[in-house]
Prior knowledge:
With 335 residues, the chain is α/β, with parallel strands linked by helices. The chain has nine helices and eleven strands. The mean pLDDT is 89.
Amino acid sequence: MQIKSVDNLLQAITEKLYITKTNKYKNVLPELEETYNTIIIMLIENLDYQEVDEKNLFSNLKKIKITSTNQNIEEYQKKIIHKLNKEEEIKAYSFLPTGLGHYENIDELMNQLIRQSTLEEKKYIYVNINIDDKSTLENPLKNLIKELKNTLLIIVGNKENTDVPLIVWSEKEKKKSWIIRHPNEKEYSPFIHMSRDLEKLYTRKRHDIFNSKIPYGKVEFNALCNPHQLRTLLIYEEDGNILGYIEGQVVTTERTAALTDSRIMRINKLFVKEENRRQKIGTRLYQAILEKAKEEKCDRIEVQVYNFTPEAQSFMSALGLDILSYQYEFRVPKK
């Protein structure tokens, strides 16, 4: 059995998701035989194969010519999403140009897809795109693909009574042995060596505030090696190398005239070595501290991000954290 039409593709996808028990399309596409953390189905309205061929669209991606369908793909996808969310093994989401939870523009859509793909859960995402100038998708798609890991991305055109493109891209996450754990006292030297760049950034950008060359003194580090306390230090180790860390602390606010009782997990520090960024290390560290916050029955997570760390601002926004407040300053001139 070959994939000759959009209908065939939809049937192959339901097989991949184990919604149907058939094996008609086994071994048709090598990419469908792999297991992925994320599967994204992107439908581009009014896109036919002729336009892709004449304008050389998506030139860096694998393309197949298939026949379009007359069935309502939107309704078909609703059924898939409902079925998956009912069974709860795979989380299913949709991003649509109109309706509940719609996206405002293509850049916002791509950012949402990147943010959603960082979640460790297995997920299925359906995307519907309806724009006149299809060439404007070229760069956003290239940027999206750079960020996706362990993902199968299937793009298909949708135009009645004509041939449409089937575009397939996938990347399996390289298997590595990694662990997030508490440090031990003997790791003080390699830990300080790994984390020194964070302190250099702070002292270089704001030496009037920060003057430390190391994140922790030895006594403080030894105390943080104890996992049975409200202040938690977790390190990310991969193939025997420490690549990042996160420190969180549970704090409470007592009820006052202005505040309610709250139990807060405050992220004091989060750092990943520069050469190892964009590998989900920061995301995994955050998720580990999130689990700790749940165990400690915290009401929320808070983190302070300085204005001179735009990368940290983008990272926290990508995780879905909301902005709680703005803090301003004025440097008083010295006489």
